[in-house]
Amino acid sequence: MSEEIKTQILHAWNRYMSQESRRYAKNEGSSTQHEDAFKLFRQGIKNHAKLSKKEKEELLASIGQPA
User: Fold this and answer.
1) Where in the chain are the domains?
2) Fewer Cβ neighbours under 10 Å: the N or C end of the chain?
3) What angle (nearest 5°) sits at the alpha carbon of residue 63, between those of residues 62 and 67?
4) Other CB atoms closer than 10 Å to residue 67's CB: what's the count?
5) What are the angstrom distances between the C-alpha of 40 and each of 13, 24, 36?
6) Residue 46: DSSP 8-state
7) What is the pLDDT of residues 21-40, one digit of tens each?
8) How far, in Å, CA of 1 to CA of 29, rounded?
9) Between residues 64 and 11, which one has the greater pLDDT?
10) Residues 6+ apart with CB under 8 A from 55
11) pLDDT at 2 over 60
12) What pLDDT is recorded for position 67?
């Protein structure tokens, strides 16, 4: 179950980064918006009830942000 959750989280992160890179290329949005979204995403991983602490740390490391 947790492997499926981790896969879904990584897929969502990759989709967000893909959209963000398109916005950046078009010069839309701001770095503040990206930082806010990143903080929310990170907080969501940290607060996820079905993931162990180790899994949370692995996910945060895989998106480039240590726990």
Assistant:
1) 2-62
2) N
3) 80
4) 13
5) 12, 19, 6
6) H
7) 887 777 776 777 778 888 88
8) 35
9) 11
10) 2, 6
11) yes
12) 53
For residue 37, how many other CB atoms are within 10 A of its CB? 13
> For the chain, what is the radius of gyration of the CA atoms?
13
Contact 52, 2 (CB under 8 A): yes
Type of residue at 28: E
- pLDDT at residue 63 in the model: 83
Contact status, residue 4 vs residue 53, Cβ threshold 8 Å: no
* CA dihedral for 60, 41, 18, 12, sign (positive or negative): positive
CA distances from 14 to 11, 41, 62 (A): 5, 12, 11
**Rounded mean pLDDT of the chain?**
84
- Identity of residue 51: L
Tokens coding 19 = 């959209």
Structure tokens at 12: 């969502």
